[in-house]
Each structure stands twice: as structure tokens, then as C-alpha cells.
Specification:
single chain; mainly alpha; 3 helices; 89% helix; rod-shaped; transmembrane; DUF3618; membrane
Amino acid sequence: MPRDPRQIQLEIDAARESLAATLDQLVYRSSPTRLKAKGQAAISSFLQSPVGMATIGAVGLLVTVAVVRRIRNHD
């Protein structure tokens, strides 16, 4: 028995709305501005944590040692 054209149209419309909502979610999730802000927030949060502060300290120490060695070897 053939399907009712109105029912088919309703199913097509529902599928179209669902696809549009999915596309809107994908656009939102992949927004460069949003991703940038999310990355900056994650980095800021890490750098303010004890582990992040220790990492900054260690990098600072390594840079200081490298600069001192370079100055000493340059003379």
C-alpha cells in the first residue's frame, strides 16, 4: 500500500529540522572564537594550578641556566 504523501512530507520536514539542529551544534562547537576562548581558559586554569606554577618555575630556571651558561661561554 502506498504511503500518504502528507506523512512523507512530515517525515521529510522533521528530518530537515533535525539536520539543521545538528548543523547548528557543529557550527557552534567548531567556532574558532569559541575554541580559542576555551583553549585560553584551559591554559589559564593550568598555569594557576600548583602543577602549572611548578612548570613555570622549572622553565624559568632552565632558561636562566641556559642564559648564564651562554654568557659564561661567550667570554
